[in-house]
Amino acid sequence: MTTAREVALDVTARVRDDDAYSNLILPSAIRDARLSSRDSGHATDLTYGALRWRGLLDAVLDECVNGPLERVDSDVRDLLRLATYELLVRRDPPHIINEWVNQANRRFRRAAGFVNATLRAVSRRTAEEWIATVTENASETHALAVRHSHPEWIVREFIELVGAGEVSDLLSANNEPPVPTLIALPGLAIRPVGAQHTEYSPYGFRSEGGSLSDVAGISDGVVRVQDEGSQLAVLVLTHAFPIQPNERWLDLCAGPGGKTALLAATGNPHGVSLEANEVLPHRAELVRRSLAPFGDSVAVSVRDGRELCAENSNTFDRILVDAPCTGLGSLRRRAESRWRKQPDDLVDLVPLQRELLSGAIGSLTVGGVVAYVTCSPLAAETTEVVAASIAEHPEAETVDTATILTTVAPSILNAQRGSAVQLYPHRHHTDAMFIQLIRRTR
Ligand SMILES: C[S@@+](CC[C@H](N)C(=O)[O-])C[C@H]1O[C@@H](n2cnc3c(N)ncnc32)[C@H](O)[C@@H]1O
User: Fold this and answer.
1) Helix axes 96-107 and 74-84, enclosed angle (nearest 10)
2) Could you tell which of 183, 278, 353 is best to mutate to test the pocket of ligand 1, judged by most ligand atoms within 8 Å of the CB?
3) What's the structural domain count of the chain?
4) Residues known to be catalytic
5) Phi, psi of 342 (to 5 degrees)
6) Same domain membership, residue 232 and residue 145
């Protein structure tokens, strides 16, 4: 019989070797192993926890092995990370070391003594004691990076954004797996009676626990999982000015189509014509599937958004540019993602973001509005992209987006970033979504 620990070992190996996404492969690994619901919870926490906390775990393990940790066989290293996560973060009792030594015996017998000795050393101190030890002579940024298990460059970026006083809250929030939020698409579904409503979106609610597939409306696609920040990004665009019949809307970067569905649900009753575009064919297919509840009322195109805009000047009344980005605003959602990001990712992304936004502004009708949205708060991908695109388009200006947001979510606080909206997990319990409305004035 496969155990939770074995599932966690297998999944972390595939994340490491095949660049797999843990959230995509873990559910089927759990199903294949036929784990009980208790063991499924254990496997899930172990896998995501050890991936998320890798920075801290490695700093501790580095102190406990002779020589550099990178020299340790990668399968053994993953086992040590999982076990150290259990000991220090979950604070499971030291007898779990025997379970891991048994695993080591089964998988790589020669390492069992080394695993035992290393884990005994780990278990001699608490997490707090280890953090004090491994950050003793560290800079403040490095100490934060270790304590909250983030790459140091990301900590530096976040300090720039929220300041040193608040950054710990943001880093801690990134280590909390989010409670899934759902949306009942307006006009197609209503929030279940008694469901806990989300704070800001009029259509959002939280699941009551249990399997999401049991939630009414999920299988028909009229209720779906969607971060509240994503819901608000769409609603800010649809509330930018009253919807007129026969408006033309474009979702320029639509895959996999979560936001398109809310655009369609909002626009269809007004006779809006909506086009959803996505450059990657397999993601365009996901957009088509996402739009199943709307029949063929939404046109789906598979094009480079820059070309599409170049051929359609003065055409659309509202455009959503949900740009490809580093995704640093959704680190809490994807356990391993923080370790895969590099500052160099910006080299290709930023010019693409600028061209997509600039192209979209060129496709607006006079009075039309673009919502530029990223799931990253970094200035290079947000305010700087907006400033560069506006500089190219004297006919466009930014709109005070926080004011529009309060028409959707009157109780929201602390969401203003200049003329834009900036949501954060530690402030709003959403992904760190950036939203800037831009209007063509002439
Ligand atoms: C942040 S995702 C969009 C998420 C989507 N709006 C949703 O809510 O489901 C960005 C998308 O832009 C697509 N993309 C990247 N480059 C593009 C381009 N040049 N033109 C159009 N889409 C592009 C990516 O493939 C990706 O699917």
Assistant:
1) 170
2) 278
3) 2
4) 375
5) -135, 150
6) no
**Domain-embedded: residue 154:** no
Of 88, 116, 149, the residue that ends a domain is 149
Tens-digit pLDDT profile for the chain (442 aa)?
Answer: 899 999 999 999 999 999 999 999 999 999 999 999 999 999 999 999 999 999 999 999 999 999 999 999 999 999 999 999 999 999 999 999 999 999 999 998 889 999 999 999 999 999 999 999 999 999 999 999 999 999 999 999 999 999 999 999 999 999 998 889 999 999 999 999 889 999 999 999 998 777 888 888 999 999 999 999 999 999 999 999 999 999 999 999 999 999 999 999 999 999 999 999 999 999 999 999 999 999 999 999 999 999 999 999 999 999 999 999 999 999 999 999 999 999 999 999 999 999 999 999 999 999 999 999 999 999 999 999 999 999 999 999 999 999 999 999 999 999 999 999 999 999 999 999 999 999 999 9
Omega prior to 256 cis, within 30 of 0: yes
- The domain that contains 54 carries what CATH number? 1.10.940.10
User: Residue 8 and residue 218: Cα distance in Å, rounded?
Assistant: 28
Within a domain: 277: yes
Q: What totals of helices (H) and strands (E) does the chain contain, helices first?
A: 20, 13
Residue 218 lies in a domain: no
With a Cβ cut-off of 6 Å, ligand 1 is lined by 230, 252-259, 277-280, 283, 304-306, 322, 324
Any domain includes 93: yes
- Picking from 127, 149, 171, the residue at the C-terminal end of a domain is 149
CA distance 379 to 360: 20
Domain that holds residue 429: 228-440
Q: Which atom of ligand 1 is nearest to the CA of 290?
A: 9
CATH number at residue 258: 3.40.50.150
